[in-house]
Design a protein that fits this description.
The chain is of the alpha+beta class. It is 15% helix and 33% strand. The strands form seven sheets. Strands 1, 10, 12, 14, 16 and 19 form a six-stranded mixed sheet that branches. A six-stranded antiparallel β-barrel has the order 4-5-6-18-17-7.
Amino acid sequence: MFSASSASAPSSSATTAHSIRSRSGGHRHGLARAAAAVMASGLLAAGTLAGATTASAEEPSQHQGGATAVLGGLKKDAYDYALLNTGDGKKPQQLPAGLFEMQVDGGGTIKTYCIDFHTPTKDGAKYQETPWDQSSLGKNENAGKIRWILQHSYPQIDDFAALAKEAGTGPLTEKTAAAGTQVAIWRYSDKADVTAKDENAEKLADWLEEKAEDVAEPKASVALEPAAVSGKAGERLGPITVHTDADQVSVAPPVDSAASGVKVTDKDGKPVTEAADGAALYFDVPAGTADGNASLSVQATTSVPVGRVFTGLIKSQTMILAGSSESAVTAAATATWAKTGPVPALTAEKNCAKGGVDITASNTGDEPFTFELAGKKNTIEAGGTRTVTIPVGEDQAYDFTITGPGGYEKNFKGVLDCKTAGTPAPGGDTETQTGSDQPTPAPSGAGTTGTTGTTGAEGDLAATGGSSATPVIAGVAIALVVLGGGAVFFLRRKKPQANA
């Protein structure tokens, strides 16, 4: 959807402060300490943002495009069991292993395997398509082998007789083929000492592990880069490059173009309604247009490429795509323009290499753009760009809202999930670890939804279905203190949970 809004021109200022508020999960008793530490370290930012204009309430946040989906659970008749050797001399733990189903926003279904063995799932958790380097695969030297396994096993190959013959196993079924595939993936994603309970599933896992080759990361189903641009009225703001695995994407026309006159065009000013991979899009803002902003979206119905990673907006097992129906995928970008003063464009991206979130600010205005972030003042000269990394703890939820006058705001939120959870403490078992500080070493899909028809199985995590995310978010939201256009900015480290 494309929408445009406008506001009266803000007053100019050579250096103005940009305010940020943030909320994240953590120890309940640590809230007061965190807030006090923030105040003591001078992270209370105040002031205004010159050149910024009113932003739409539906302006896109951090999501870089692609499919978004809701986790259902393990697919009925597509999972069996595996045995985890914990290395503590006790008998192996039994846990379900197989395909998960997810419902794509806007239509479609995807099937995934888990690549974060020791982290439980949260049924109903929302996921988004994510580049490898913003997930635990970013530093995994075997990431390409995992994709090879996906390409050469179930569900990409659903002729079980042919798969069994190729792999040299006995008869395979949907259940055992899915279990064997998941076990092979876990050996590369988590370096887990795990075997399939079924003999033929174990033979399949061994064959997949042995034969796997390194293959490249797949393209995004759809993405726009950059996700934000800025400039002055009378210019074409861009370019915004389309990245997609689909043959083409549709570009939504401006909803209120009659009022604003803003159009989406190519570099020559020709209106664009469809685009292919590599196409460049521009916001064509007529001269004399009042200071404002607009957003565009592109969308397609396509099969999401096998091997794309899906990460949760709350803490839940990282997934990797194994199969997709025709699904709805979207990406969005924004533009801001003003006559004078600084004219910023803000984007955010997880940075697993540095353990944080990169906030990138560019300034196409005629005056410097100054903002305060994490207690440090940053100035972007006219025509300049700077990236600031906000440290975020592993598995920590973050929610940054950057605000300015006239209702301007940009929100970036998610969970930094760059590593697998690791091995549970020796001597722990599935039942005793549920609800403790140790991650539970099994997916929780079995028995948690009506799709599995199984409850109470050893390794089942039905007890972990509840989530502490809602009270944490609510508590932190209450703790936000806004004074004079500024806001308290703080991060709290989240206590490891057995649930989401």
